[in-house]
From TrEMBL:
CTP binds at D283, K293, F327, K341, K345. Catalyzes two sequential steps in the biosynthesis of coenzyme A. In the first step cysteine is conjugated to 4'-phosphopantothenate to form 4-phosphopantothenoylcysteine. In the second step the latter compound is decarboxylated to form 4'-phosphopantotheine. This is Coenzyme A biosynthesis bifunctional protein CoaBC. Pathway: Cofactor biosynthesis; coenzyme A biosynthesis; CoA from (R)-pantothenate: step 2/5; Cofactor biosynthesis; coenzyme A biosynthesis; CoA from (R)-pantothenate: step 3/5. Residues 189-399 form the DNA/pantothenate metabolism flavoprotein C-terminal domain. Binds 1 FMN per subunit.
Length: 403
C-alpha cells in the first residue's frame, strides 16, 4: 500500500506547458489512495482545462478567490485549503510562480494557499534550459529550500523550445516515486520491527465447542495498522476475528489457541524491536479435549481446566532489547494490579482498561485507558476511539526510541 494512501493532497498547477502532465499526475494520486484538491493559476488553464482536473480529482477545481460572474458565489477560502492538506505539491512550478513563492507576491489563489499551508510543500520546476540556470531562478530554489520546501528535481530531455537539457518537469510516475520515497524516509518508525497480538483465543472442549471471550481484536488490529502507516514492519498474531488489515507491511499469522499464539510469538520475538500484547488470551483450557461431540446425557457436566502458558510472562523473561507493552483488563484494584503485572512480567509499559469505565473493554469502537510505565508513572486518558488510542500507544513507542 502506498504511503500516499489516505493523504490529503493540494496540487497547485501553474502556467507552463508541463501542466498537461497534471492529468496523469492526478490519476496516479487517486490510484495511490490519496484525496486531491487542485488549485490552478489563471495562466495554467491555457494548457489544461479545469474540467479535466475536476473530473479526475473528483473535486471542484479552484482558480480564483471568487467567481466574478456570480456575486453570490462563495469565496474560496485559501486558509482552509492550506490547512486542509497533509501535503502541498506545486507542479509544474514555473519560474514566475517560484519567484512569487520565494518573495511572497500574493496575487493569486495558489500563492495565497501556499502562504497559508502548514503542511510539507514540494515543488516540481518546469521551464526552459536558460531560465532554469538563470541566477534569479537559482535564487528562488535557494530561498524555497531555506523555507523548508522540497524540490522535486527537474529532468533532462527535449524541451518545448526545441532545445535539449535540464528543465523538464519530472514525469508524473517519478513525482509519485519521489514523494513516496521521501515520505517513507521520514516516517518515525521506519526500520522498526513489531510483534503484535490481537483478538481472543479459543480453547477446544470438543470439535464444536470452545472456551473463549468477547474480544473483537479491533484494538490490536488498529495498533498494527497505525504502526505500519508510521513505517514499521509488523507481524500480527491474531486469534479468531473478523478484523482485516490492508497494509502490506503487516504480516498476519492466524491462530486459534493460546498454545498456537505462544508458539508464534516465540518464533518472531527475538527479531523485533517492539512487542505489544493486545490479545485477550484464555487463562485456562480444558485438560482433555473430546474427540467427538459431547452428548447431552446428564444434568451436570464438569470440565477440568488447566492453566495455559502465560505468553507475556514468557516474553518478559527472555526480553533483551525489546520494548514490551502489555494490556490489563481489570474490574477492581486496577492500578495496584497493573503495577504488579509490570513487575512480574518485566514490562516497559502497560495499557490498563477498567470494565468500570463506560465505553471501555471488548466489542466497542472506543476505549478508555490508563498508561503506567515501569517507573509507575500513571497517566489516565480520556475516552477515545480505538484508532486514537492506537496512536497514543505508538506515540509512547516513538518517544522511547527518540529519548
Amino acid at each position: 500500500m502506498s504511503v500516499l494512501n489516505g493523504k490529503k493532497i493540494l496540487l497547485g498547477v501553474s502556467g507552463g506547458i508541463a501542466a498537461y502532465k497534471t492529468a496523469s499526475l492526478v490519476r496516479l494520486f487517486i490510484k495511490a489512495g490519496a484525496e486531491i484538491q487542485v488549485i490552478m493559476t489563471p495562466a495554467s488553464k491555457d494548457f489544461v482545462t479545469p474540467l479535466t482536473l475536476s473530473t479526475l480529482s473528483k473535486n471542484p477545481v479552484h482558480s480564483s478567490f471568487f467567481n466574478q460572474e456570480d456575486e453570490n458565489e462563495k469565496w474560496n477560502n485559501h486558509v482552509e485549503l492550506g490547512l486542509w492538506a497533509d501535503l502541498m505539491i506545486i507542479a509544474p512550478a514555473t519560474a514566475n510562480t517560484m519567484s512569487k513563492m520565494a518573495n511572497g507576491t500574493c496575487d493569486n489563489l495558489l500563492i495565497a494557499a501556499y502562504l497559508s499551508a502548514k503542511c510539507p510543500v514540494y515543488f516540481a520546476p518546469a521551464m526552459d534550459l536558460d531560465m532554469y540556470k538563470h541566477p534569479s531562478t537559482l535564487a528562488s530554489f535557494s530561498l524555497l529550500k531555506q523555507f523548508g520546501n522540497t524540490i522535486i528535481p527537474a529532468e533532462s530531455g527535449e524541451l518545448a523550445s526545441g532545445l535539449s537539457g535540464e528543465g523538464r518537469m519530472a514525469e508524473p510516475e517519478n513525482i509519485i516515486a519521489f514523494l513516496e520515497a521521501d515520505l517513507e524516509s521520514k516516517l518515525p518508525l521506519k526500520g522498526k520491527k513489531f510483534l503484535i497480538t490481537a483478538g481472543p483465543t479459543y480453547e477446544a472442549i470438543d470439535p464444536v465447542r470452545f472456551i473463549g471471550n468477547h474480544s473483537s481484536g479491533k484494538m490490536g488490529f488498529d495498533i498494527a495498522s497505525e504502526a505500519a502507516n508510521l513505517g514499521a514492519s509488523v507481524v500480527l498474531v491474531a486469534g479468531p476475528t473478523n478484523c482485516k488489515v490492508t497494509n502490506t507491511s503487516v504480516k498476519v499469522i492466524s491462530v486459534t489457541s493460546a498454545q498456537e499464539m505462544y508458539d508464534a510469538c516465540h518464533e518472531y520475538f527475538s527479531n523485533v524491536d517492539v512487542a505489544i500484547a493486545a490479545a485477550a488470551v484464555a487463562d485456562y483450557r480444558p485438560k482433555t479435549v473430546a474427540l467427538q461431540k459431547i452428548k447431552k446425557a446428564s444434568e451436570d457436566f464438569t470440565i477440568e481446566l488447566e492453566k495455559t502458558k502465560d505468553i507475556l510472562l514468557s516474553l518478559g523473561e527472555i526480553k533483551e532489547k525489546q520494548f514490551l507493552i502489555g494490556f490489563a483488563l481489570e474490574t477492581e484494584n486496577e492500578i495496584e494490579n497493573a503495577k504488579l503485572k509490570i513487575q512480574k512480567k518485566n514490562l516497559d509499559l502497560i495499557v490498563l482498561n477498567s470494565l468500570q469505565d463506560k465505553g471501555a473493554g471488548f466489542g466497542g469502537g472506543t476505549n478508555k485507558v490508563t498508561f503506567i510505565d515501569k517507573a509507575f508513572t500513571v497517566e489516565p486518558m480520556e475516552l477515545k476511539t480505538k484508532e486514537a488510542v492506537a496512536t497514543d500507544i505508538l506515540n509512547k513507542v516513538i518517544k522511547h526510541f527518540h529519548e
